[in-house]
UniProtKB/TrEMBL annotation:
The protein, known as: procollagen-proline 4-dioxygenase
Spans through the membrane: 12-36
UniProt xrefs under SMART domains: P4Hc (SM00702)
Domain Fe2OG dioxygenase intervals: 166-286
EC top class named in words: oxidoreductase
Entry cofactors: L-ascorbate
Main location as per UniProt: endoplasmic reticulum
Membrane topology listed for this record: Single-pass type II membrane protein
UniProtKB keywords: Dioxygenase, Endoplasmic reticulum, Glycoprotein, Iron, Membrane, Metal-binding, Oxidoreductase, Signal-anchor, Transmembrane, Transmembrane helix
An example Gene Ontology molecular-function term: L-ascorbic acid binding
Entry's localization field: Endoplasmic reticulum membrane
Family (UniProt): Belongs to the P4HA family.
Keyword Membrane attributed: yes
Length: 292
């Protein structure tokens, strides 16, 4: 009969096992801290957008009529037919308010240039806004002069080409109240309809002086070559619409480079249905003041 020998190895109880595990865990933690404390820390790289510093550009020698500064005026091409450009934040809210304040005291019902055979009575209701003409020389704050210079840079047409309406380079400041509008029309004057012209409006710049709650858009009904078909009405407000926003500018050309009228430049002011619309218009001609 085989007798089992008693084992001399002591049995480990549960407390001893727990204590052993805890001991080795703590020892390992401190050992890793000692051995790896000098190891470099790897951080994730952040992707950065490259920013181009426009101030780094240096101006080059310029002509006698040139300028030292390099400037940029942001714009959006709204259309090529007609050529129409949109200039966001062209003027500040303060500049717009100054112009409105100047105009309020001298507003009168807006008038029309009559075509052959038209009368004041037959064109009644075509243009129902009120307005006034103010030149930069009349503005003691210098606001209109600054805006005029900026328009000249945006168009590359000198200030002297601004239209003279009995006063040098005047702006036409207009106010449209609820239900007031201007039916679609051309800013250029067709000699066959208006008679011989000593000079011609080649472009128009509209500076929106206020926001409009509803309505009051500038509309181009023949944008992108739409033709006048049966049932077309110059009173309708369909086509490319530009909503007035205070401080923004709209430039469009009435003539092609060859001097003929761009028929797609037909435009109007939609009726204001809520609020009030203020706009400053600068007409630009093909000749300098005093040359005709």
């Amino acid at each position: 009969m085989r007798i089992k020998a008693k084992s001399s190895r002591p049995k480990l109880g549960l407390p001893m096992v727990v204590f052993s595990c805890l001991f080795f865990f703590i020892a390992g933690f401190f050992a890793s801290a000692i051995f790896f404390q000098d190891a470099p820390t790897v951080k994730p790289r952040l992707r950065l957008l490259e920013v181009v510093n426009e101030e780094g550009h240096k101006s080059i020698p310029h002509g006698e009529s040139g300028e030292d500064a390099i400037g940029s005026i942001p714009f959006q091409v709204l259309s090529w037919k007609p050529r129409a450009l949109y200039f966001p934040n062209f003027a500040t809210a303060e500049e717009c308010q100054i112009i409105v304040k100047m105009a309020k005291a001298s507003l009168k019902p807006s008038s029309l240039a009559l075509r052959k055979g038209e009368t004041i009575e037959s064109t009644k209701g075509t243009r129902t806004s009120s307005g006034t003409f103010i030149s930069a020389s009349e503005d003691k704050t210098g606001t209109l002069g600054y805006i005029e210079e900026k328009i000249a840079r945006a168009t590359m047409i000198p200030r002297a080409h601004g239209e003279d309406m009995t006063m040098l380079q005047a702006f036409n400041i207009l106010r449209y109240e609820v239900d007031q509008k201007y039916d679609s029309h051309y800013d250029a004057f067709n000699p066959s309809e208006y008679g011989p012209q000593s000079s011609q409006r080649i472009a128009s710049f509209l500076l929106y002086l206020s926001n409009v709650e509803e309505g009051g858009e500038t509309v181009f009904p023949l944008e992108n070559g739409v033709s006048i078909g049966r049932g077309f009405s110059f009173k309708q407000c369909t086509g490319l619409k530009v909503k007035p926003r205070q401080g923004d500018g709209l430039l469009f050309y009435s003539l092609f480079p060859n001097g003929t009228i761009d028929l797609s430049s037909l435009h109007g002011s939609c009726p204001v249905t809520k609020g009030e619309k203020w706009v400053a218009t600068k007409w630009i001609r093909d000749q300098r003041e005093g040359e005709n």
